Amino acid sequence: MARSQESFGKKEREKKKQKKKLEKEKKKEHREKQSLDDMIAYVDEHGNITSTPPDPTKKKEEVKLEDIEISVSRKEDMDPEDLIRKGVVSYFNENKGYGFIRDLDTQESIFVHLNGMVDQVRERDTVTFETEKGPKGLNAIQVKLYVKEKPKAVSEEKPKVAPEAEDKTAPEAKSPSEPEKPAEDKEQASE
Questions:
Q1: How far apart are CA 148 and CA 167, in angstroms?
Q2: What is the CA radius of gyration of the chain?
Q3: What gap in Å lies between CA 23 and CA 40, rounded to an integer?
Q4: What is the C-alpha to C-alpha distance for residues 98 and 108, in angstroms, rounded to an integer?
Q5: How far is CA 190 from the centre of its chain?
Q6: 99 has which bridge partners?
Q7: Whole-model pTM above 0.90?
Q8: 73-83, pLDDT tens digit by residue?
Q9: Which residues, including other chains, have CB under 8 Å from residue 42's CB and lie 6 or more apart?
């Protein structure tokens, strides 16, 4: 007897082809049954896609053209004082004239060149600086040594001395343990 020329693998492949063909036909029928309304999508006022059309009676919010900002960061305008950052020089090569500053707030490493310095700095110096965008990232400019603000000096005037303290320097000074005598007694004691 001769063997069948179909193997088990061939039969399985044929079954898979038939199954895919049936699925494809079902999808086609489903698409044909769908109406145009089912395929339309709407965008609501918040930018979300919905299947319901917008309500025409609802008043739309007017947006001025000047208020639209594209590609603008959401940070508020910074004060000039906020632009000045504080950091520590983590590396500086005096021969080549460049180095890096580690920002104390963000721990970000920022490139610094000799041309961007106001004061001469060394490694581990605390500095204040501003940043600008360079071709390879942020660059530190206006680099100055950080000088701690001294507390406001108290006036150098002599402290006011109480009148009682002045009496202690006089020859008739009383000891603090002596009780105070009336003025009449003082006169009698001195005679």
A1: 44
A2: 44
A3: 25
A4: 17
A5: 78
A6: 92, 112
A7: no
A8: 666 655 555 68
A9: 49, 50, 51, 52, 53, 54
